Amino acid sequence: MQKFFAWIAVVIGAVYFIVPLIGTLEFSLRMRRDAYSFDAYASVFSDSQFLYAFGYSMLMALLTIIFGMLIVVPTAYWVRLRLPQIRPIVEFITLMPLVIPAIVIVFGYLRLYNSSSILPLTGFEQTTNFLLVCSYIVLSLPYMYRSVDTAMRTIDVGTLTEAAESLGAKWTTIMFRCIFPNVMSGVLSGAFITLAIVMGEFTMASLLNRPAFGPYMQLVGANQAYQSSALAIIALAVTWLSMGLLQLASRFSKLAPIKA
Fold first, then answer.
1. Which residues of the chain have pLDDT under 50?
2. What positions does the domain ABC transmembrane type-1 occupy (predicted)?
């Protein structure tokens, strides 16, 4: 009886999530009267603004992943190796973006870094892009840190460090040739989640007036019904692709030997 109710719950949940997606997909194919077609998708892909917004968000995601990785991996390594007593503090800090709304964070940035402040980051295009990358790093911090920290638990950080130091390795060599290869599964997990977050984020990009994919989707949705449905399916496909790559990376990481 318990299995029966469990399956009922699974079916209800699947219907709740899948039926709206099927409806959105079906609507996106009805741009041509009385026939199914990919006209909406062709219209989206032929729009230069779509290509620019998508490419911009992909670039922001790449920069967020790189800089987030360079911040999180050394931090997790140092906390685990040298400063385990501050681990609860670091975990608390990395969880804060989950409880502080993105709109609160971005309004804080606008208040601190507006064009009339001491550090006018929002007064120039490149510095605003830098501020947006910092915003995305903050949003992805809970996922990136926990992915890396979980991967780091599977290796003996102390032994690897001592072995590398006994061979005369410097700190940078230890980090990039010993630690990074062994936590790459966690880095990839955090990277794919970060990609999904950046591609769908709207609040920060909109308030910072950046031409990202999220604001572009909102703009199209306000004016073009069929194209907005097509964009929703495209965004969903990017998210599912990220999740699929995450599962693939996790599976291969279990088969990979630990590098010393």
1. 257-260
2. 54-247
In this predicted structure, what is the pLDDT of residue 89? 92
What pTM was estimated for this model as a whole? Answer: 0.84
What's residue 255's pLDDT? 53
- 74-84: per-residue pLDDT in tens? 999 999 888 88
Domain boundaries, the chain: 47-254
- CATH superfamily for 47-254 is MetI-like (1.10.3720.10)
pLDDT in tens, 223-236: 888 888 888 888 88
